[in-house]
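Structure representation.

___
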Amino acid sequence: MKPIKITVQATNEIQIALRAVNGTATAHTLHDAVDIIDLAKQAEKTVVCLVAAKARAQGAVLVHTSGDSVARAYQNSRKATTVRLERRSSDWYLVDISEAKINTEAGKQKLWLSEAQDAFAITELRAQYSIIKPAV
């Protein structure tokens, strides 16, 4: 698919892309463009918190699979939606949408950072605490 810049102005384009994958399914799927916009906002907040600046957010990736957990007695798989969002120079882009099949497990989400972002996040975290040295 052609990457879509995630903005309110692109709501219709995102909606069409979701409908192409989900068809008429709405339960357990990402079926509304607002869901994608919310995921991008959440990802932006998380990444900027980790790397301490919007300028360092470029290159982060969020992979999210929709769906809620159900009782183990539910034997059938359910249709869900997996999306891949990428943070480019100034905005998040929807770069892939695919159908997923889930069973009793709920949907999942994973944030991917570059090695440089990881190193910066670790440095920022370690700056927030000191290690207590035991008395000898």
User: Anything to note?
Assistant: The first strand starts at residue 4 and ends at 5. The mean pLDDT is 91. The two ends are 62 Å apart (CA to CA).
